[in-house]
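U., I forgot to send this yesterday:
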Amino acid sequence: MGRSVKIGQMVDQMYRLREEEKKFKDEAKRIREQIADLQAKLIEAMELEGLKLVRGELATASLKTATYARPVDFEKFARWAVERGRFDMFYKRVNAAPVVEMLEQENLLPPGVETYSEVKLNLRKL
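Result:
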């Protein structure tokens, strides 16, 4: 009996901490939204003025352009990359959902893939 009471207290403590964390996450989300709004306005103002660098009393802001890539036809891109051996253009990650589905339905895994399990604790409010 004594052991389950301590375990129950741990559950309650974890719940209280999670609720406290949620308050901080909500506040952080609000702050991130304000930052994103201000950033968009600052970029627009700097571009209108033709400025690459602006200095305030506390910080500087500079504009830098970065180039990113995303596939518009993934199958076409994948064929091209495989034909040329350009596997460096892929992230090395496997989508678990279809792999688990294949394992459950066919009892097979794709070549070169293994599964692993993690135990996670699910906490719900009473």
